[in-house]
């Protein structure tokens, strides 16, 4: 067991022996942003190391096929913050579709097939009832009671 682990660790280290002067860990938004900034400044002597078989890091979109229309769903990052001039922020601002249509929720199985709306509404209603019941029954500390009563919900 120890020998297998040692061989594995040595093989990982062998991969890291490169001639590049800069190593970027991860091909997520920050890693790609760092590589872009280096290229913009005429620095090309770098290597990006990524543990997954795809780019994007926590940003992971998949296509869900539905009877009405196909939609892309994000399984990863839910929020993109930043400022003008930040490459990731600028990309997201131009690429993301903003929708305020929260009246109609759709639920999907992990294989992308849509769940019957009546069934999914019953599940969501059950979840809301369970949460309400839990909130009413759970013990609360004195500090939590003070904070709950003195700080308005957001």
UniProtKB/TrEMBL annotation:
It comes from Henosepilachna vigintioctopunctata. Residues 1-19 form the signal peptide. PANTHER family: AMINE OXIDASE DOMAIN-CONTAINING PROTEIN-RELATED (PTHR10742:SF398), FLAVIN MONOAMINE OXIDASE (PTHR10742). This is Amine oxidase domain-containing protein. Keywords: Signal. Pfam families: Amino_oxidase. GO terms for molecular function: polyamine oxidase activity. Residues 30-131 form the Amine oxidase domain. It comes from the Eukaryota. The keyword Chloroplast does not apply. InterPro entries: Amino_oxidase, FAD/NAD-bd_sf, Flavin_monoamine_oxidase.
